[in-house]
């Protein structure tokens, strides 16, 4: 069998210069769209809070006067509409699909906005899921967006590969948690981005600690973090450490994530706003 036939689609563990890497897979946006910067939010594994970081960053930059958007590329586990309290079905006209808007005006598109039952599982194979992600870019009319955040599923499979190859990604933010195991898996996401020539803006560590509500002491429930070592090893920046905060969970459950007042991601937002304009 050829190398192409043996391909596992896991670019993080592959150094082959296969033909699929040489083909131009880029997808044109909807002719009526205007998106200045595309930022992928990725993680090596699930459960580290990638979607929460996506929602918090979009909300923070929106409050700073930017027009933000969230493309929910986690087709089998979408959570963005719930966090923002958006449940109305997306509409379409002859020109394309119209994204829904949050209370503050953030444009969002998710598979949950296109189905009658948001709780119904999406039982599709990888290529079908990847095609939907491309349609979210090519068929949706994104209006004067300064920063689009792409909330990607965990890992280094079909969807992250599709996003990196098909969308004009200007940089990625990696989300991690303090466990040693997660630090190891982060390496896979880092190596994939490096092999795909996608700039890494930095890493955000979620659930880094718990702050005692009585005395204010920081408790590192997962032990000492390895995130600084990982960032230094690959030459990118630690953008933020977010503690476990029950307020975040409560606001997500209530669909009010835009109301979160925490400033843990201020530096990450500064880095994003300093990205060079296209």
SSE string: HEHEHEEEEHEHEHEEHEHH
Main structural class: alpha/beta
* Overall form: globular
Task: Tell me the fraction of residues in β-strands, as a range.
Answer: 15-25%
CATH architecture: 3-Layer(aba) Sandwich
| Uncertain runs | none
Helical run tally? 9
Per the CATH scheme, the topology name is: Rossmann fold
The counted number of beta strands is 11
Q: How many strands, what sense, and barrel or not for the largest sheet?
A: 9 strands, mixed
Percent range of helical residues: 25-40%
CATH 4th-level superfamily: P-loop containing nucleotide triphosphate hydrolases
Task: Name the average pLDDT.
Answer: 89
Task: Describe this entry's structure for a reader.
This protein is an alpha/beta fold. It has one domain: P-loop containing nucleotide triphosphate hydrolases (Rossmann fold, 3-Layer(aba) Sandwich). The protein is built from 9 helices and 11 strands. The protein has helices at 19-22, 50-63, 80-84, 126-138, 158-166, 180-195, 227-234, 246-254, 266-273; strands spanning 35-42, 68-72, 91-93, 96-98, 100-101, 107-109, 145-151, 171-176, 200-211, 218-219, 238-244. Strands 1, 2, 5, 6, 7, 8, 9, 10 and 11 form a 9-stranded mixed sheet that branches. A two-stranded antiparallel sheet has the order 3-4. A hairpin with a 6-residue loop joins β9 (200-211) and β10. α4 runs parallel beside α5.
């Amino acid at each position: 069998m050829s190398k192409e036939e043996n391909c596992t689609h896991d670019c993080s563990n592959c150094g082959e210069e296969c033909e699929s890497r040489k083909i131009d897979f880029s997808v044109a946006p909807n002719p009526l769209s205007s998106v200045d910067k595309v930022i992928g939010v990725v993680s090596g594994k699930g459960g580290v809070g990638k979607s929460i970081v996506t929602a918090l960053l979009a909300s923070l930059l929106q409050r700073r006067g930017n027009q933000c958007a969230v493309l929910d590329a986690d087709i089998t586990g979408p959570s963005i509409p719930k966090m923002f309290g958006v449940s109305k079905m997306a509409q379409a006209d002859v020109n394309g699909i119209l994204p829904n808007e949050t209370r503050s005006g953030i444009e969002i598109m998710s598979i949950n906005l296109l189905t009658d039952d948001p709780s119904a599982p999406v039982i599709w194979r990888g290529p079908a899921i990847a095609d939907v992600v491309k349609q979210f870019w090519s068929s949706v009319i994104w209006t004067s967006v300064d920063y689009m955040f792409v909330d990607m599923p965990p890992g280094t499979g079909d969807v992250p590969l599709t996003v990196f190859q098909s969308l004009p990604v200007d940089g990625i933010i990696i989300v991690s948690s303090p466990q040693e195991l997660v630090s190891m898996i982060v390496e896979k996401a880092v190596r994939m981005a490096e092999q795909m020539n996608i700039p890494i803006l930095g890493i955000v560590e979620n659930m880094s600690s718990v702050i005692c509500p009585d005395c204010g002491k920081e408790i590192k429930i997962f032990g000492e973090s390895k995130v600084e070592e990982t960032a230094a090893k690959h030459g990118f920046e630690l953008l933020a450490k977010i503690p476990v905060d029950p307020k975040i969970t409560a606001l997500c459950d209530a669909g009010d994530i835009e109301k979160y007042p925490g400033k843990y991601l201020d530096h990450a937002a500064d880095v994003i706003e300093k990205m060079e304009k296209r």
